[in-house]
Design a protein that fits this description.
With about 150 residues, the protein is an alpha+beta fold. It has 2 domains: about 15-60, Roll (Ubiquitin-like (UB roll)); about 70-150, Translation initiation factor 3 (IF-3), C-terminal domain (Translation Initiation Factor IF3). The protein has 4 helices and 6 strands; from the N terminus they run αββαβαβαββ. The strands form 2 sheets. The protein has a 4-stranded mixed sheet. A two-stranded antiparallel sheet has the order 1-2. A hairpin with a 2-residue loop joins strand 5 (about 130-140) and strand 6. The longest helix has 18 residues, at about 45-60. The chain is rod-shaped, with a radius of gyration of 29 Å. The chain starts with 13 loop residues before the first helix and ends with a strand.
Length: about 150
Amino acid sequence: MIDENGKQLGIMPTREALALAHERGLDLVEVAPNASPPVCRLLDFGKFQYERAKRAREAKKAQKRVEIKEVRLRPKTGEHDIAYKLRDARRFLENGAKVKIRVQFRGREITHLDVGRELLERVAQELADVAVIEQRPSLDGRSLLMILAPSQK
């Protein structure tokens, strides 16, 4: 058994430990039930739960959420429109977001997957200075997908 200051009190029966906890106005909390004998601590359980939740909130706040932006293209998208979409994708990547490039096919366009793959390869080449390919082009239903992540430069 360990008291609230971290001092070991030694092995004692459960009844004695509960009496000691009640006497000090604390809770008896089992911290290692699988140990032999089980390890318990004397502590204020409400305060312990509050501090644990506070640490979890701080850890969550320190995490960086990865944002995924999507750019949609078609096999027949014009040159100016592609340049415009690439400018947006470049801005997203520079801000630290991942970019999902989707080439959508309609009707019989699906028979020309090579056009979509060439378009995705071109996009990857033009954004190579700010991005790395995280997921190679793959077919997802009636669209080709490629995911670009910001480069570590």
